[in-house]
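Observation: inputs received (chain + flavin-adenine dinucleotide).
Thought: call the complex predictor directly.
Action: predict_structure
Action Input:
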Amino acid sequence: MPATENIYLPKTAVLDRVISEIHEVKTFYWHFEESAEQTAFKHFRPGQFAQVSLFGVGEFPTSLPPSPTEDETFFTVRQVGSCTSALHHLNPGDKFAVRGPYGNGFPMEQYYGRNLIFVAGGIGLIPLRSCIVYALKNREKYERIQIFHGAKTPGELMYVPKLHEWEQTPGVECHLTVDRAGDNWTGNVGVVGSLFKKPGVQVPVENTIAFVCGPPIMFRFVIKDLLGMGFHERNIISTLERYMKCGVGKCGHCCIGVAYVCVDGPVFTYEQIKRLGEDI
Ligand SMILES: Cc1cc2nc3c(=O)[nH]c(=O)nc-3n(C[C@H](O)[C@H](O)[C@H](O)COP(=O)(O)OP(=O)(O)OC[C@H]3O[C@@H](n4cnc5c(N)ncnc54)[C@H](O)[C@@H]3O)c2cc1C
Ligand code: FES
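Observation:
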C-alpha cells in the first residue's frame, strides 16, 4: 500500500443480486468496481470481517461468509438499524463501499490433521459458513467434520440449500435441530446441544477443535456441554462481536481489556475469552 493511501478510504462496490435467507436476513452478492480491488480482496481468511459503507448513512462491520476458495463475494446481514436497513434497501446495480478484510480469522492451517466440529445457533452460521466451505474444499487435510446447526423454527435455519448440500456430502455429518417444530419438520427438536446426545451421534473429543458461534445464551450452554464432554478451553474457538469504528486498531472502540477485537480478534479461543474476563 502506498504510504500516502488513506486506510479509511473504502473502495466502491456494486450490488449484483440479493437473496432472502430468513426474516430480516438477506445475502448480498457484490463485486468491486475495480477488478484489481476484487483480486486483492480475495486473499481474506475465514473469520475475517469487512467494513461496509452506505453513502450518506454510515459504516458497519460484517463477517465474510464466503470461503476464499469460492468465486463470489457476499455478505449476509440482519436488518437492525440505520446502516443495515440502508443496505437492505439497495437494488442490484446500486453502489456502496467496502474496506478490509480485517481481523485475524480462524487459523484453519493450524488445524490440519484435527477433527472439526462446527456448532452454530441461528445467524451464528454466517461466520462459520466460510470455515465449513474452506474445510470441505480441503477435505483431505482434516479428520472428521461434523456440523451442528440449530434455529428457533425450521424457517429460521440458515443457508438451507447449503445445509442440504452438506447433508448429502460424503465425509461430513450435518445435524439440524429446531426449538419449535412445524407440521413439516421430521428432524430433531431441542437446543443445538441436544444433538450431541442424539442416538447415532458420536462427538470425538480427542484431537478436536470446536467452532462455536451463536447468540450468548446458546454459546453459554454449548460451552457448558463441550467442557462437560472433556473439551479443553483452548480447543473451543469463536468470534466476538463488539462495537467497532475504525476496524484497524486505532480508535479503541472495540477494546476488551488489553485486546483490540478488530485486530487481535474477532476470533478467540474460549481460553482467551475467559482470560480477557469477557462475559458472553
Ligand atoms: C466482527 C463483526 C462481524 C459482524 N458480522 C455480522 C454479519 O455477518 N451479519 C450481521 O447481520 N451482523 C454482523 N455484525 C453486527 C453488525 O455489525 C451490526 O448489526 C451493525 O453494526 C448494525 O448497524 P446499524 O447501523 O444497522 O445499526 P445501529 O443503528 O447502529 O444499531 C441498531 C441496534 O443494534 C445495536 N448494535 C449495533 N451494532 C452492534 C454490535 N456490533 N453489537 C451489538 N449490538 C449492536 C445497537 O445498539 C442498536 O440497538 C457483526 C459485527 C461485528 C463486530
Ligand atoms: S474498532 Fe477501532 S480499535 Fe478496534
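Thought: report the result.
Final Answer: The mean pLDDT is 95. Helices lie at 35-41, 82-88, 125-137, 160-168, 216-229, 261-264, 270-275.
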